[in-house]
Known about the structure:
- Keywords: Coiled coil.
- It holds the Pfam family Sos7.
- One of its GO terms (biological process) is attachment of mitotic spindle microtubules to kinetochore.
- Residues 53-120 form the Kinetochore protein Sos7 coiled-coil domain.
- The protein folds into two domains: 6-238, Up-down Bundle (Substrate Binding Domain Of Dnak, Chain:A, Domain 2), CATH 1.20.1270; 241-328, no CATH class.
- Helices cover 69% and strands 8% of the residues.
- The longest helix is centred in the middle third of the chain and has 89 residues, at 85-173.
- The protein has helices at 6-18, 27-33, 44-74, 85-173, 178-233, 242-259, 315-327, and strands at residues 266-272, 275-281, 287-293, 298-302.
- By secondary structure, it is an alpha+beta fold.
- Helix 4 (85-173) packs antiparallel against helix 5 and helix 5 crosses helix 7 (315-327).
- The chain is elongated, with a radius of gyration of 35 Å.
- It has a four-stranded antiparallel β-sheet.
Amino acid sequence: MTGPSSQSLREALEQVxxxxxxxxxxxxxxxxxxxITLQNPKSIDEEIERQKEIFSKLKxxxxxxxxxxxxLRKISELTSDEIDKNDVKLIEADCMExxxxxxxxxxxxxxxxxxxxxxTIDSVxxxxxxxxxxQKTQELIDSVADLEKEIDKIFEExxxxxxxxxxxxxxxxxxxxxxxxxxxxxxxxxxxxVQNSQLENELIQRESDLAAQQATIELAVAKLRDLKVLAxxxxxxxxxxxxxxxxKWCKEMNEILVKFxxxxxxxxxxxxEDVFQLDFTDANSTPKSLRFDMSYRILSSDGLSGDFRSDxxxxxxFLQEVAGLxxx
Length: 328
């Protein structure tokens, strides 16, 4: 049986939860410890409207004070001859400049609010997805641990059966029915082997599912990290062109496959328009390859003996399918 144990998978999950690079994993604690009075980041629209109302009230107070000042100037004892018209023009020009600057700042503020609003919604949604994937991963780890305990128990029972076999052999040596005793014992051993094989196959399948779930979490956390940087800089989303997007995806896919398989020599590259090829070498130094398109549909394979799906898949299904082929 190959593949990581439940303990190593549990430690890997804890490392993801504690990792400094995954800053959004701790975003819930940061939000709760901040001075914001919101109960949920999704209600930021209500907070923005409340702040706008406060701003409108302050603006009204300012206009009221400005009107009062103008009124007091009108009823003062100063005559028009005592007021320098050039000063008045300078003040009016300065007011117009300040109003234009205020309008520019207000428009910039509205743009920043829209950008932050979208980032907040995306961050909350991705954090919820991360929590769900983490829960599923934890359940798979617990299931793998239970299977390991069952296998250990079966090995212990097998040792007990061996001791019983020795006792029966000793007893049968004193009797004439030794051949019948050996047949019964062989049948029991065959049943134990079948049961062990079934449990090992089930454990391998669980580990493959767990690797696919872990890979999905890695991708989700990477996207969360990008959103965190975007939220801190308060900048609109950066748009990558097609080549940059898939170059980044190829790099992430290489890292995930190397981490969750026993293979060390992996190379994912683009070989045509929307067509990618995964080259790797097995333990016997035999080169193999796998081709697929943008919809995660496997087109062909070279050197792989197992059957593979030829229909379109989503990313988690594709990772699980590739992980299964690499283990064969």
